[in-house]
Amino acid sequence: MKYLLHFLTSILILTTLAVNGAKAQLSLLDEYILGEMARENIPGLSVAVISGAEINLRSYGVRKAASVDLVDNETIFEAASLSKPVFALLVLELAERGVIDLDRPIHEYVDESSSFGPAFFENDNYLLITPRMVLSHTSGLPNGTRTPGRIHFEPGSEFAYSGTGYRYLWAAVEYTTQQSLTELLDEIIFGPLDMHSSSFLWRSDFDDNVAWAHNTEGEVVREILHLEAEFPEGGLLTNVSDFSKFLNHIITRYHAADPLLRNMVAAKITAVDHGDSGQMLWGLGWGIERAGMGERIWHTGSNGPFKSFALVDPQRASALLFFANGENGLEIIPGLLDKTLGATELSEFYQKTIRDSLRH
Does the global pTM surpass 0.85? Predict the structure, then answer.
């Protein structure tokens, strides 16, 4: 990877949607990011910084190591678990329309003959699990497939991050609406927000501008996922241009005092109490950092070598977003926050909050 710093410096692509007179500050940000990418062997990165009405999109590096295929603001990445806030908003919209009740047991919405019927679960605690519990990661279900139907504690009593819970909830939504995830999102979120480069299924029009996955040494390990099935917990394919619209939508609705959005970002459970440093909590689809800068919502994403991160400060109408195509992508979070929205004593604990809660 010795070529990386010199090469990245020569190929920075900059698109500024709103010029705020802070070019010197952005130049320092570029310098910092390029240095971190070289140090952490991250071949490509797309970043969005939102401040009020201003959205700055910046892309760096290459889609595939040892190539001249540049990352730009339209390059498609695996969003990984940044899929979850999108699915969570969809569920909340359906609840507002009366399609699903956040406090009604999910099993009442699921086809009993499906893969998420009664036979899937190891005990009857599944009868207690509601959509609200799934979205706040208090269902007791595991993350992963080692013991997928095991419920590790009484639903609603503890925090344990669970992708399985999201799949269970999706089975309920799919059966109730008789629509695909793609159809629902195009109608309710992607279409209205002009997120036309976002999909939970592979599309042939992505072919010409996709990122590849790289290991800790910056070496290619695989292609982007060509998904033929919809996975609400981690299957979103998108780019920084599209997903920044989603984050801006969250901010806009928060400042309009939208009850749905305020409910989404309100704490439902404490994930980790860090004492005087603050707390990590969870809302509906979002982690919540309560520390030196007030309450900020966040989520990480990790599909192996594809990494992603979003943090939104609703009160200050600001946000940071990035997609990386290298295994070390999440290592840059604290420093990048320090250069943009501001870091706190908890800025090193986002992924650890999730990892330490996992039940398998």
Answer: yes
